[in-house]
């Protein structure tokens, strides 16, 4: 907690106010307690039950959660107002927090930050603001006047407020009261739950498991510490091939067929397939692609994998950009898949493949906190895998600020390697992260250069395989295609879409299949 307070103090020195949801936090430090008492209307009054708790959300209702008068003028001290989590018991997407404020007499308006406190301070930016303008460069909201500054919460915000409560910290304005309005979700929020978009989607019945297949033997998966576990609570490792982009045309999507998946399971000994859908690139889901056709390919892939008792990884293949750029589409797409396949225990979700220029704390984690809840509406226990910054290689970032497992459930974190480019130092980083308890899933690896072409390196690949086996790290090979590049598993001259033999495989394909055949499926 002391580290958090020091970080907060740095924000205040820059002239900000931070609105935070705090788990069991009253004043945060002795200094804060003393300052609050000096200013009056201290923390006890902010959580006093005589103000009432927020009412049922059957109709619009406004609760005065805190009132008094608090001047945030003294930049040398940290002051806070806390609101207990019980006030947010009826909160859902679309509910509002109103901060009634005036400009401090000796200062111009300071920008505000809306944060909650889970495992660390996290800014809430997914909702919408009224009477204030969000400055993405600064990362805060500037009030437009003395009318209440409103924040309309998202589904993820509501969950965190229910779990942790709320606090207003900082200086530079005077606050008279904070009100909470419930029952407004029908008015909508740009980032609210996507459940209304899946009304025409029917949930399929639970499929029958085929005896002797990977899923029949291991069942639903879960995450405990750094480990992926099967339904018996035993450590389990997924491995197999990743398709190329399903949106790249029939040249790549043709490998999504029942016979191909039979070859992968029966001949290559794999237990998982990764189905890749690019949102933005090359006629992707958000780039002019035929969304209906792309969904059909994805759903066919899930069905083919399920018939063979394979696990299937639904990959929203964010590639070299901030995942928040396609957040709304991700929520709609993944909500539909999660609803239709809610009874399929073999489906896992990868929500952002390779973000870049996307810091964990300000981009990827807030994105995950928006996207995971729409999956959890229908698939509360499914394993969700979250990408990391810089082509999914900054695996250390989530260590200091992981997603709260009590809120978001079975979550793992992505690392990618290409053996000729990423050698000992990268293996050390992964090993360190796993030893510190981070559940790592290598959703993509190659046996060559990071470009995917050139530099085939069998010895470095073998070193990576050894690390994966040592720590039970799941790993998926790029790619099941005959594209003319080193990373492809199938020879460019081979037109087969199933039934491949060794002579049909590239040197990469041969090495990877030989490795897969040594593993316990």
From TrEMBL:
The keyword Endoplasmic reticulum does not apply. The lineage of its organism: Bacteria, Pseudomonadati, Spirochaetota, Spirochaetia, Spirochaetales. It comes from Treponema saccharophilum DSM 2985. The keyword NADP does not apply. This is Cellulase. Residues 1-23 form the signal peptide. GO terms for biological process: polysaccharide catabolic process. It is an enzyme of class 3 (hydrolase). Residues 30-62, 182-216 are annotated as: Disordered. Residues 229-484 form the Glycoside hydrolase family domain. Belongs to the glycosyl hydrolase 5 (cellulase A) family. Residues 38-62, 182-199 have a biased composition (Low complexity). It holds the Pfam family Cellulase.
């Amino acid at each position: 907690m002391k580290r958090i307070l020091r970080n907060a103090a740095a924000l205040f020195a820059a002239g900000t106010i931070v609105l935070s949801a705090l788990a069991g936090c009253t004043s945060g430090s002795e200094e804060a307690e003393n300052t609050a008492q000096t200013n009056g209307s201290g923390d006890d009054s902010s959580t006093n039950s005589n103000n009432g708790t927020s009412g049922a959300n059957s109709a619009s209702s406004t609760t005065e959660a805190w009132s008094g008068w608090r001047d945030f003028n003294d930049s040398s001290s940290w002051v806070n107002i806390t609101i207990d989590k019980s006030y947010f018991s009826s909160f859902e997407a679309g509910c509002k927090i109103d901060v009634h404020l005036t400009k401090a007499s000796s200062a111009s308006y300071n920008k505000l930050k809306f944060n909650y406190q889970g495992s660390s301070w996290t800014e809430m930016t997914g909702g919408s603001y009224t009477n204030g303008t969000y400055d993405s460069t600064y990362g805060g909201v500037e009030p437009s006047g003395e009318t209440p500054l409103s924040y309309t919460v998202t589904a993820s915000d509501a969950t965190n407020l229910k779990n942790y409560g709320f606090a207003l910290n900082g200086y530079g304005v005077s606050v008279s009261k904070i009100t909470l309005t419930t029952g407004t979700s029908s008015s909508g929020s740009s980032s609210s739950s996507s459940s209304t978009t899946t009304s025409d989607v029917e949930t399929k019945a639970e499929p029958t498991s085929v005896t002797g297949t990977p899923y029949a033997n291991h069942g639903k998966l879960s995450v405990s510490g750094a480990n992926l576990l099967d339904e018996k609570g035993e450590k389990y490792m997924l491995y197999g091939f990743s398709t190329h982009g399903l949106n790249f045309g029939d040249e790549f999507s043709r490998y999504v067929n029942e016979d191909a998946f039979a070859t992968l399971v029966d001949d290559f000994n794999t237990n998982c397939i990764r189905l890749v859908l690019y949102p933005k690139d090359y006629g992707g889901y958000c780039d002019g692609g035929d969304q209906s056709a792309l969904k059909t390919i994805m759903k066919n892939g899930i069905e083919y994998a399920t018939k063979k008792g394979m696990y299937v990884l639904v990959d929203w293949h964010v590639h070299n950009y901030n995942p928040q750029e396609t957040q709304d589409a991700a929520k709609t797409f993944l909500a539909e898949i999660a609803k239709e396949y809610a009874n399929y225990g073999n489906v896992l979700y990868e929500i952002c493949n390779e973000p870049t220029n996307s810091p964990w704390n300000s981009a990827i984690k807030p994105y995950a906190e928006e996207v995971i809840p729409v999956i959890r509406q229908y698939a509360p226990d499914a394993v969700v895998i979250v990408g990391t910054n810089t082509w999914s290689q900054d695996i250390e970032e989530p260590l200091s600020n992981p997603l709260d497992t009590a809120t978001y459930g079975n979550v793992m974190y992505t690392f990618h390697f290409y053996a000729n480019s990423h050698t000992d130092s990268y293996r050390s980083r992964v090993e360190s992260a796993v030893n510190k308890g981070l559940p790592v899933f290598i959703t993509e690896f190659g046996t060559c250069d990071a470009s995917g072409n050139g530099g085939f390196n069998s010895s470095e690949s073998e070193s990576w395989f050894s690390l994966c086996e040592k720590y039970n790290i799941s790993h998926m090979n790029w790619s099941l295609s005959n594209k003319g590049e080193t990373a492809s598993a199938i020879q460019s001259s081979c037109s087969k879409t199933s039934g491949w033999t060794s002579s049909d495989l590239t040197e990469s394909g041969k090495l990877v299949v030989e490795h897969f055949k040594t593993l316990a499926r």
